[in-house]
Design a protein that fits this description.
This protein is an all-alpha fold. It contains 6 helices and no strands. It has one domain (about 35-175). Keywords: Membrane, Transmembrane, Transmembrane helix.
């Protein structure tokens, strides 16, 4: 047996000798980022968007804003927390809108993806139905051609009637013509 010669592997410094090869650097993050399930967050966004589109949300929002304004108008001065321009109310409503808009967009994007999947499934079902219809149309056409070649009941009846008429004609002509035995008897 011939001995195999091994080529020595280059050491770390020799491997990095090429300048066009990036170095491998593994960095550990200083702070671990929280992990969340995108589907769970998407479901939350859809539920939130659905709730914001209901009449009950509008009624509750109107009730809260109304109570806020009435409280800050009629409560004693020491109990008021947001005076007339209602800057804090404006801030709260802006904050609510700044969170609601992306959540609604996320819900719309998820709905769009679902619609694409449903549309693709519908397209595939339509293609299968179209192929089935074409197959059935070809089968019906071939059956029509085969039935055209098969004798129908009316055709068979008419043929039998014509054969029966021919048989009756041949019997009638045989009865009218003298038989061979009678001809032999007259000749004697």
């Amino acid at each position: 047996m011939a001995e195999r010669q091994r080529t020595p592997r280059p050491s770390g410094s020799e491997r990095r000798a090429r300048l066009d090869t990036p170095t491998e650097v593994k960095r550990r993050p200083l702070v671990k980022r929280p992990r969340f399930d995108a589907d769970d967050f998407g479901v939350f966004a859809e539920q939130f968007a659905r709730f914001m589109g209901t009449a009950s949300f509008l009624l509750w929002m109107t009730l809260v804003v109304g109570v806020w304004i009435v409280w800050n108008l009629l409560a004693p001065q020491s109990w008021r927390f947001d005076s007339y321009p209602y800057i804090f109310l404006t801030l709260i409503l802006s904050l609510q809108a700044s969170y609601a808009a992306p959540l609604i967009l996320l819900a719309q994007n998820r709905q769009e993806q679902r619609d694409k999947v449903v549309a693709e499934q519908d397209r595939q079902a339509n293609a299968r139905a179209h192929a089935d219809m074409e197959f059935l149309a070809r089968e019906v056409a071939s059956l029509r051609m085969a039935v055209g070649e098969v004798a129908t009941r009316d055709f068979v009846r008419s043929e039998l009637r014509s054969l029966l008429a021919e048989i009756e004609d041949s019997r009638a002509s045989a009865a009218e013509a003298p038989s061979d035995s009678e001809e032999d008897g007259t000749a004697t």
